[in-house]
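Field reference: sequence -> structure
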Amino acid sequence: MPIDRVRRKLVNGFACTAVSAAVLPCCLGRAALAAAGSLEFKVEKVADGVFAFRGVDELMSAANQGAISNLGVVVGTDAVAVIDSGGSLIEANAFIAAIGKVSAKPVRYLINTHMHPDHIFGNAAFREIGATIVGHHNLPRALEARGAFYLQSFREQIGEALMKGIEIIPPTRLVDDRLQLDLGGRVLELRAWKAAHTDNDLTVFDGATGTLFAGDLVFVGSLPTLDGSLLGWLRQMDALAAIGAARVVPGHGPVPADWPQALTAERRYFEVLAHDIRKAIADGRPLSEAVKTAGRSERGNWRLFDDYNERNATAAFAELEWE
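Structure field:
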């Protein structure tokens, strides 16, 4: 099967919901209100003027309210930049309230690190407060292709109440290669990457503190998910590791994490997966058999391995059989 068809069958989206009943839209039903009130939303300081929310390392569920991805805040002397908006308007509104507690400056930019729902479903809340949405030059096309599917599939997964008001909102400022955003006394370096986790991955580097927001190019503890290119991800590992950061906020995992050590396990997993898939192809094994064994030696090293490894192996097989 052509790789694009395989990728379209993969659902590497996640959803985050949250949080404080005090900031919930009045139109939400009682179930959503009660659920959201059970999870506290707060951002933690990770460096001077840099804050992050850590999502849980679990599959989305009613118990964890779907709050599974990491979100970021950088404060300059003039304005604030936010990295990713969360997986619902409930979470986004709670995020905005939390930002207000650490800075009264306006949120000038919302930076989407890539297309997956846990990173972009809260965009409408930031549009409403006047933030300019920034993203990879491929992001608008990706959202156009996947947006309707995301809205339908996550409505089924997290329920109508939590999906109320969510829109697929693309960025209006695009990053072709690199872009600087000046927050006043603090300049963020944005970098667009070639296909890896997705084909629209963007990183954000705060040179003032040496903090890298890597989005889902970096997973720590939870199994990386492949929705772009295995070979592309591996080829770009050295360039990613060469970023002179003091710490990283990964898309999923501890906040912050050591850099570049945070890449070590991820690189090893993908190298093992590629080796196993190549051997299966050379041995003439069909995809249905190969995906059940590829990467299995890594099982004990990752949370959510059983949930995502076969999906990763399917995408890897589709890519590597045409090497």
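Note: The two ends are 14 Å apart (CA to CA).
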